[in-house]
Records
---
Amino acid sequence: MLRGARSHLSASFASAAVLAAALLSSFARCSLPGRGDPVASVLSPYFGTKTRYEDVNPWLLVDPVEPRRDPELLAGTCTPVQLVALIRHGTRYPTTKQIRKLRQLQGLLQTRGTGGDGSRVAAALAEWPLWYDDWMDGQLVEKGRQDMRQLALRLAALFPDLFSRENYDRLRLVTSSKHRCVDSSAAFLQGLWQHYHPGLPPPDVSDMECDPPRVNDKLMRFFDHCEKFLTDVERNATALYHVEAFKTGPEMQKVLKKVAATLQVPVNNLNAGLSPSLLQSSSSLVMRRPSFPCSPSWATSRTRSP
């Protein structure tokens, strides 16, 4: 939280550098696409939380550090006195659990049947190299650090009074204990250092003028600590009744059959019984199965899927 004369900025960015915590779940190393790259605009709307900043805001492909200010909020028309931001961590690798799901998906495709219009897609996905290793386990990648540094520069440019040198030591970052969130916080502070000291390499976070990021899992990972949530939702067998009904309902079964036909795999391999080991739910298994291998690679290495 950054406080100046009646001003304070609360920051936990991407669960790390401005109130943050959760999953941007874009994954690993990445080079930015060329301006106007059609692949990003066509595929990225389907990737949900795997979508990169620059796919949501194409202006970042032109200038990743210059903010786009709302004409209604031009300098001189308002005076910001407080900024509180809740932001996800930067681009990361898939978690070990997700990597294992990808391997299981590939194994399923490699044992598929042949023939039919969908076989070309299934064959291409089955032969697509999986380069993820278990050690990656959701770690922040260089693209993710770049996400955080550039966001810090944009915020500093957008709110120069709040991010003044006088207020720098009043910045407060709150993060969860997840390594990708802690690393995102550090990268955010490095971006601010770049703003204040252009051309100078940033010191260790502990040696900066502001306080280092503070870990607070009770706030940032409330779902692990909130007794009401744990009792009413997490441990409540009936809390997700309608979700389960949807997963086994006729609409989902119809989708299952279409996906199975496209991927040339038995429909029984796509039922709710497989969902815990392949994706997070039966519905996400069906909806995301064809694109699940694609979104991490596009976010992390700009690899275009079959």
---
Amino acid sequence: MSDHREVNLTGVKQNKGVWLVKVPKYLSQQWDKATEKGEVGKITIGKKQGKTEVCFSLNEELTALGAVDEINGTLQVPKDHPFNMHTVGGQTLAVFSQSDTDEISLEGMVVHRAECRPVVSDNYMKLKKLQIKRSTKPQRLSQQLERAVTTVFKPVANHDFNLEYEKKKKSEGKMVRAERQVVLDMLFSAFEKHQYYNIKDLVDITKQPVTYLKEIMREIGTYNSKGAHKSTWELKPEYRHYRSAGEEEEMETA
């Protein structure tokens, strides 16, 4: 199976320029709470003393969403977020999107980079204080019991997967190393049917110990650590047309 996917490059023809903006986590969470076609805010672009100033103002409705807290009842998300502009710095950056049908499209090339920062106000300081308290709150708490626990839980039956494992272990017995040539013949025969195998399947086919099998596979095979066939083995190119000793004798006799 191939990992290659087609990419819609309509954005290249349209020559669209996009902004790459880093926003605070709480702001992105507020955006997620907006309705499907709702307005999350407005961006104003102006000039002050010859410098471009950009500011994002969060929609008033979103500042109130989730504002009720057990500690600060009046807690609200900051509304105004000025942009701290950065240069692209000679890098070539692009923005891609993925649809519900897994189609990948190029939205445009990055022409500006910016960091969205909130205006430091009382609301912002309360929000940061609450975030710090939540982050330092322990996930588990110890609790003092008034009396000792007398209930003892004992297993009433063995689990099905344990029984299946014991049954398999008894039927197969302890794996004994076979002669190297015998194991090679079994491996080459298996790889004639399929190109890729994981180590568990090879153990089932050859009935050999894992360590012994891996030792042989390192000599004749290649382990795929990534890609479409991750965590599988395949034969090295020089072994893919190998014939077992028995097959060669048959051909000579014929």
---
Amino acid sequence: MNTILAIILVFVGCCSNVVFLELLVREFPGCGNIVTFAQFAFIALEGFIFHTNFGRKKPAIPIRNYVIMVTMFFTVSVINNYALNFSISMPLHMIFRSGSLIANMVLGIIILKKRYTRGKYVSIAFVSLGICICTIMSAKQVNVDQETTEEQGFYAFLRWLLGICMLTFALLMSARMGIFQETLYKQYGKHSKEALFYNHCLPLPGFLLLASNIYSHSILFSQSAAVHVPVIEKAVPVMWIYLLMNVITQYVCIRGVFTLTTECASLTVTLVVTLRKFVSLIFSILYFQNPFTAGHWLGTGLVFVGTLLYTEVWASVRSALRKEESKRE
């Protein structure tokens, strides 16, 4: 029952989160910092009350290790959200972030000296090719979407290219953080709730560096169209409602994934998260009518097929079917 509930939380929370994020970004493309700050503050407050018991519970992993992890996590979160300010469409953003397998494999080979099977390399080739196709298709649309002069179009392309570089850096940094986290868990044991709290609490002072941007967007949010909220019987700026819903759905999504990791095998978690990304992508394309060509569909298909090949879903399904047949015999 917990597994089914966790899967529902992942799909409902994560897919809804993408919807509210896109509603925010479409109105104010540079609002990534205020969104990231709100998410971090909410999750840190929840962890401070329910996990650390108002700071009375001591961490199992030394704080100095969390400082290193938090620096990487904060950087990745801010850059991923800020990249949306550089003409990166939401579908491309989701597809690009699905390339985490590539970064994990590359850094695993370089840092951990890991070796993989031929099938793993083939699956990564699928994912890489898919991301390249989607990126090229999106690059062609940068200048097409706006009637601009050649010079303006060139600067728009450079701005988009900077966004791609930011996503690439965040992808590699996220993979490095995953390896660091893996080594910590081997040494101190798994403490997912604790890591979730410190990853969101310790970076909060870092947002002081982004205070002016956060403040300016809070003013813009307050100036947005007001919507009557029946519960409080008051009119509230719609952007604040979108932000609140984004924060809540982000929390539901994270809790769902956390519950899933405690209830299921890593293969099941990967499969559920991959399918969730695919559903979010389809919803974003259909509901928001984001431009998506045949090339985008081809690239997307390669990314998700490569991901499923990497996780050896087909082999697991065949193995399960064989066991069922042997039981019947």
